Amino acid sequence: KIKKGLSAGRVQSIALNLIIQREKEIRDFKPEEYWTIDAKFKKGRTKFEADFWGVDNKKKKLSNEKDVKEVIEKIDKDKPFNVINIEQKERKRMPPLPFTTSTMQQTANNNLKFRTQKTMMVAQQLYEGINIGRGGAVGLITYMRTDSTRISSVAKHEAAVFLHENYGEEYAASKPRQG
Question: Which UniProt keywords apply (predicted)?
Fold first, then answer.
């Protein structure tokens, strides 16, 4: 029920309900304690790190310090450890989307400690062009004031052709990332 004089539109009601549900989840949250055992191994010049997973091929949850101490007490540091499983995973990271004005400013501030004014001044210089030795100034970036991450299909095609011809298929995306 809404008090007299207050409004509640369709969007307001849904948004308010989501906020109330989230606040209830936050208040009802009960933190669970968990522990991990991390080990550093060395064999000759080879070093690697490992995490405790379990005992006798059974996963063991470490809920408190007592559980951790029990495991550590059972470990005989003078006996050799056996590596039972090695998982090799290939991870692919997608390149970041092109900069918008705000993401360019944030990145310049976070990585270079540039203020907004300095970032925009440098971007303007890159846009206007820098003499790179090929007969005059060449603009190195497109328009720097944008909220769009879209790249024209012509530019995508030209970039793909350039990468294939100069670096090989392994460096060119098989399918351009949508932004």
Answer: Isomerase
pTM above 0.85, yes or no: no
Of 34, 143, 167, 171, catalytic:
143
Contacts of residues 140-149 at CB distance under 8 Å and 24 or more positions apart, as own/partner, are 144/101, 144/104, 144/120, 145/101, 146/100, 146/101, 147/100, 147/101, 147/102, 148/100, 149/97, 149/98, 149/99, 149/100, 149/179
Residue with token string 């092109």: 98
Among 3.40.50.300, 1.10.290.10, 1.10.150.170, 3.40.470.10, name the CATH number for the domain at 101-171: 1.10.290.10
Q: CA triplet 4, 10, 13: central angle to 5 degrees? A: 65
Check if 167 is active-site.
no
Task: Give the count of beta carbons closer than 10 Å to the beta carbon of residue 50.
Answer: 12
CB–CB of 126/144 below 8 Å? yes
Note the pLDDT tens digit of each residue in 67-125: 989 888 887 777 777 767 777 777 777 778 889 999 999 999 999 999 999 999 999 99
